[in-house]
Structure formats: structure tokens, C-alpha cells
């Protein structure tokens, strides 16, 4: 049984219990955020956020340090709930279903929404086991199927040729750039729809950064990608739409060309031209 079949069965079971994750988007929108506010204790970190994330596009989130970029990203897979003092108001829908509802199981959400972090964080396991980890959790034990998933995921993250002869070696033996592509492959192995990337290249050298940027361009054929970046050139190079955050608010959200060539808000212009941040 493939991972896709396992997920389909889970989805069908959910169907019967009324908490469905649909496979199709509503008007090509994967995530729709309406009037989202978030507080960490007394800190009002997100203020009236309204944003739509479109299918099979790259959406960049830019803005100065502390403006709420990572917080927003982490609301989309509900990782932010790990902070005990967090409180939210407003609505986020994923393919039409409200994900902040308690009825929406966070484990289901995370099989559809993968995440790649700033620092590559492979498990202290072999390259093979890093990729097979998620599918095994989903109950896949068949060696042939696992082999196929491992190869497909590593190919998908453009690292197969570099590691195919050393799958049994510990992932810590890879370079930083290779580790980050391995982590992307690990995300692909759970067959998500959406990949969240929180400054995925900030710990990498320019060559590895370009490889990840090329990879993102390839991945958007099959996935919707949301990337937080401090690197303005990167946002301009690889994204279709860009949201500019400032002090917890979305100041401007538009197609990337417009944001970088003809922003309507002076604060966006000042930020992208390096006057602050
Ligand atoms: N776990 C937390 N507990 C309390 N406050 C937090 C927590 N995480 C973030 N904050 C606060 O929320 C605000 C937004 O932080 P966030 O990390 O989302 O910003 P950011 O734009 O991603 O910053 P950076 O670019 O520096 O990573 C900041 O004021 C920050 O101090």
C-alpha cells in the first residue's frame, strides 16, 4: 500500500466522521486567512491578518526582524500552539476547512502541510531512515515500497545522485546544503500539498542557496510553497506573490513584480530599498 493510499483511507475514514480534508482547493486557494490575531501572553504578534495562499505558487513573506513572519508560518501548521501562552482569534481555512477548530486534527493537518526550518535538522539516523521515518509512522513497512518512496523523495529534492551510494551512512556526514535538501526530501516523503519554509537558506553558502532556490522553482509544479526570507533578492527571484509584514500587520500583499517595482505603500518601498530593517 502506498502512502497516498494510506492517506486516502485516512481521509475517507474522516469523511465518515465528518471532519474531511478535501483534496481540492476553493478557487485555487490553499490557505485563506481572515482577520487573524495572535497574542503570546500580552504581546500582540499578529494583527488582523488577511492573506490568501494560492495553489502551486511560491508565496514569500518578508519584513524586518520580529514582525511576525515565523509566527504566521507556524499558525498554518498549528505549530504555534506549542507555546502555552498563545491565543488566536480569526479564521484560517485549508482547502475550505477551518484549521483552528479543535475538531480539525493537527496530525491530519501536518500530513498535508510539511515544514522546513532555518537550520537543517536531520535526525541522527541514516540518510535512508531519515526519509523512511514519516512513511513508517504512517504504517508503511514494505521494504520495496519504502525503497521507492526514499528514491522518489531524494530525486524530488535533487539529492539522489549525491547520496544514492551512501544511503546507509549517517545524515550528519552530509554538508549543510545537502542536509537541507535531505530535510526537504524528508518533507516530500509524506506527500504534502503545502511546504512551509522558514528562512531555509539563511544557514547556507551562496552555492547551496542557489540549489535550494532552483529546487523551490521545480517543487512549485506540484506543491504550494510559503517561504519566509530576509533576502529580498531571493523573494524577488523565486516567488510569485509577496506579503510584506511590519509590526504584526500585513502592510502589502501583491504579486512579487508589483511589490518590488511599484509598491503602493511607502513603508514597503522603504523596506525593499533597504531604508530600514
Ligand atoms: N514563543 C514566543 N513567546 C513569546 N513571544 C514570542 C514568541 N515567539 C515570538 N514572539 C514574539 O512575537 C513577535 C513576532 O516574532 P516572530 O518570530 O514571528 O518574528 P519574525 O518576523 O519571524 O522575526 P525574525 O525575522 O527575527 O525571525 C516578536 O515580538 C517576538 O518577540
Write the layout of secondary structure elements.
Layout lengths: L2 H14 L12 E12 L2 E12 L3 E5 L6 H8 L9 E9 L2 E2 L7 H7 E4 L10 H11 L5 H14 L3 H4 L12 H13 L5 E5 L7 H14 L4 E5 L3 H7 L2 E6 L2 E7 H6 L4 H7 L5
Parallel strand pairs: 3-8, 3-9, 6-7, 7-8
Antiparallel strand pairs: 1-2, 1-4, 4-5, 9-10
Helix pairs in contact: 4-5, 4-7, 5-7, 7-8
Bound molecules: adenosine-5'-triphosphate.
The site of adenosine-5'-triphosphate has 12 residues, from strand 2 and helix 2.
Give an account of the 3D structure.
One of its GO terms (molecular function) is ATP hydrolysis activity. Keywords: ATP-binding, Nucleotide-binding, Transport. One of its GO terms (biological process) is phosphate ion transmembrane transport. With 277 residues, the chain is α/β, with parallel strands linked by helices. The chain has a domain at 55-78 and 105-272: Rossmann fold, CATH 3.40.50. The protein has helices spanning 3-16, 69-76, 106-112, 127-137, 143-156, 160-163, 176-188, 206-219, 232-238, 256-261, 266-272; strands spanning 29-40, 43-54, 58-62, 86-94, 97-98, 113-116, 194-198, 224-228, 241-246, 249-255. α4 packs parallel to α7 (176-188), α5 (143-156) crosses α7 and α7 runs parallel beside α8 (206-219). The radius of gyration is 19 Å and the shape is globular. The termini are far apart. The protein binds adenosine-5'-triphosphate. Adenosine-5'-triphosphate is lined by residues 40, 43, 45, 63, 65-71, 83. The site of adenosine-5'-triphosphate has 12 residues, from β2 and α2.
